[in-house]
């Protein structure tokens, strides 16, 4: 998925993608509910000499309307129950300026991921499908929606073949 040409600022989860985006010149606000993830991302940002506005927060309680963003990126948020996922996605959508992009770089597992055993929740009902995502962003213009398999190497229990989905959609206006 091409990220070149994205406007700034962007909001993403507080992991390696935040630091990479900041290194590309984007103004990044990052949120994660895990203190160790924030600490690790802060160390990585310092080592790379980039600035990221990190927040330790519960994604389900995040104030999505506090400040509009040009882009919002959600990475591996399918671990929440479906109702919470829907609330998070609705929040992400409302956090965008009109014309902003909603970027769900989910690498979000699709249901066949359960059979691969390389990560993700054990319940396929927590995973995304193209049809589900198309329905959830029906009010947006879908620029890319792709279900695919790829090799991942994210550490113990998260290496090997993975069933993934990517969504890029633009808010109208």
Structure, described:
This protein has 173 residues and is an alpha/beta fold. 27% of the residues lie in helices and 33% in strands. It has a seven-stranded mixed sheet. Strand 6 (141-153) and strand 7 (159-170) form a beta hairpin. Helix 1 runs parallel beside helix 2 (35-48).
Give the rounded overall mean pLDDT.
Answer: 83
> Describe the biggest sheet?
7 strands, mixed
Order of helices and strands: EHEHEEHEHHEE
Structural class: alpha/beta
Q: How many helices does DSSP assign?
A: 5
Rg: 15 Å
The neighbouring-strand order within the major sheet is 3-2-1-4-5-7-6
Number of E-state strands: 7
Q: Quote the distance from N terminus to C terminus.
A: 23 Å
Strand content: 25-35%
User: How would you sum up the global shape?
Assistant: globular
Contiguous uncertain segments of 5+ residues:
1-11
Provide the helix percentage. Answer: 25-40%
């Amino acid at each position: 998925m091409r990220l070149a040409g994205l406007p700034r600022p962007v909001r993403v989860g507080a992991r390696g993608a935040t630091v990479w985006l900041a290194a590309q010149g984007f103004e990044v606000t990052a949120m994660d509910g895990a203190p160790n993830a924030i600490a690790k991302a802060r160390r990585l940002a310092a080592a790379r000499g980039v600035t990221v506005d990190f927040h330790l927060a519960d994604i389900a309680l995040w104030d999505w309307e506090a400040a509009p963003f040009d882009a919002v990126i959600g990475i591996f948020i399918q671990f929440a129950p479906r109702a919470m996922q829907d609330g998070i996605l609705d929040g992400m959508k409302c956090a965008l300026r009109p014309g902003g992009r909603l970027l769900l770089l989910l690498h979000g597992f699709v249901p066949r991921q359960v059979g691969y055993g390389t990560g993700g929740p054990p319940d396929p009902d927590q995973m995304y499908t193209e049809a589900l995502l198309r329905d959830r962003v029906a009010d947006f213009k879908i620029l890319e929606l792709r279900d695919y398999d790829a090799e991942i190497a994210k550490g113990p229990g998260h290496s090997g073949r993975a069933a993934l989905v990517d969504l890029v959609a633009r808010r109208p206006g």
